[in-house]
């Protein structure tokens, strides 16, 4: 399955409703982004149960700013609407496959409890 393009209008709904979502923040002028693109595309074909999405940081500056993107490419992984991974830099194929396996293997009940505890501590 090919990666979908996300915008400010579609971002929140996509990560909330889609289970596992990997988001690649990129720009056309970025060399490492261009090197990572085929790795991301291949992974999207190998994992049809995962939504692969891209955000062009040049056309979606507000979204990139809201996501606090300071370096590209940046890869974010969401599961059940919760950010579970965020890291700048292009990943090799094996590392991306490992990341996907880790996200799929998360105990989401434990993650949700941790998130709730963190939110309670911030209040």
Automatic annotation (TrEMBL):
NCBIfam families documented for this protein: thioredoxin
Gene: trxA
Family: Belongs to the thioredoxin family.
InterPro entries recorded: Thioredoxin, Thioredoxin-like_sf, Thioredoxin_CS, Thioredoxin_domain
Domain spans labelled Thioredoxin: 1-105
Keyword tags: Disulfide bond, Electron transport, Redox-active center, Transport
Gene3D superfamilies: Glutaredoxin
Signal peptide limits: none
Name the UniProt record assigns to this protein: Thioredoxin
PROSITE patterns in the record: THIOREDOXIN_1, THIOREDOXIN_2
């Amino acid at each position: 399955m090919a990666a979908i393009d996300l915008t400010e209008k579609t971002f929140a709904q996509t990560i909330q409703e889609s289970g596992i979502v990997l988001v690649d923040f990129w720009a056309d002028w970025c060399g490492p982004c261009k090197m990572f693109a085929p790795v991301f595309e291949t992974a999207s074909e190998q994992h049809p149960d995962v939504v692969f999405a891209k955000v062009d940081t040049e056309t979606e500056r507000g979204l990139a700013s809201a996501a606090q993107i300071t370096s590209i490419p940046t890869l974010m992984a969401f599961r059940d609407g919760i950010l579970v991974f965020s890291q700048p830099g292009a990943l090799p194929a094996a590392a991306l496959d490992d990341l996907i396996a880790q996200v799929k293997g998360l105990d989401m009940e434990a993650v949700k409890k941790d998130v709730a505890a963190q939110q309670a501590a911030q209040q």
